[in-house]
Input
Amino acid sequence: MTQRLALVTGGEGGIGTEICRQLGAAGRRVVTTCLDPEAENIEAWADGLRQAGVDASWVQCDVSDYDACVAMADEVRERFGDVEILVNVAGITRDGFLHKMENAQWRSVIDINLNGAFNVTRQFVAGMREQGFGRVVNISSVNGQTGQFGQTNYSAAKAGLHGFTMALAKEGAPKGVTANTVSPGYVKTSMTEAIPEKVREAIVAQIPAGDMGQPADIARAVAFLTADDAGYINGANLPVNGALFCSF
Ligand code: CAA
Output
């Protein structure tokens, strides 16, 4: 049987790479989108995963550009086949207090983190419905659940992602398509390294687990939600945050 194909946007980032690795370990073929193959050294990234036994490939795409996503989806279908698992990871921060925030800071975060999920998911969900199988996972954030200083843009986009997930879950459930959110807390990646040190230390001091999480902690949740036998878990938000924020 052909291995299921997983598309992971932003798969070359800290969390994305680990998601690709764990999906590969679960027997999925993995394709990532990348923005700039040379700058991201994407061939070396793919080689690293292949050496770890993952069937990994990449396509170039700016997820904030709808037409580019249409073209990317055609390329993926032609080169690799139908996407059955989609993980929307691509995301950026452009932090700043709202009273100082530039229009471009707001727009770029909404365009990539929220509109990007629509632009990509829109291309594949009809195929999933036809196949009677699909798994969509959107990577949100604890800061979408709680709000965070300097992140009105990011918190809005990440909260919006879960609304998108819940609506998509209702639409997909009759057709075997699930949509779930994973909401990471603070994870050791270049994104959290960019937080001013004093603020970062104050945040870590509030994490009951005592430290930031690892990308593998997030990937574990994604592998769980995308399993073939996870079809009844639909419309859920799975927080992975070391008990930083607990709710039900
Ligand atoms: N908690 C408590 N206080 C905070 C704070 C926070 N998270 N962020 C900023 N402040 C406080 C600062 O300590 C400072 O207080 P004092 O004046 O008493 O020193 C005050 O707010 C002003 O801060 P700055 O001097 O830094 O002001 P600025 O305008 O230069 O920058 C900022 C403001 C952009 C919010 C900056 O402080 C910052 O980048 N903060 C971190 C924001 C953050 O937590 N981002 C998360 C990124 S990781 C991520 O998003 C991944 C994920 O999904 C979890």
Summary: The chain has nine helices and seven strands.
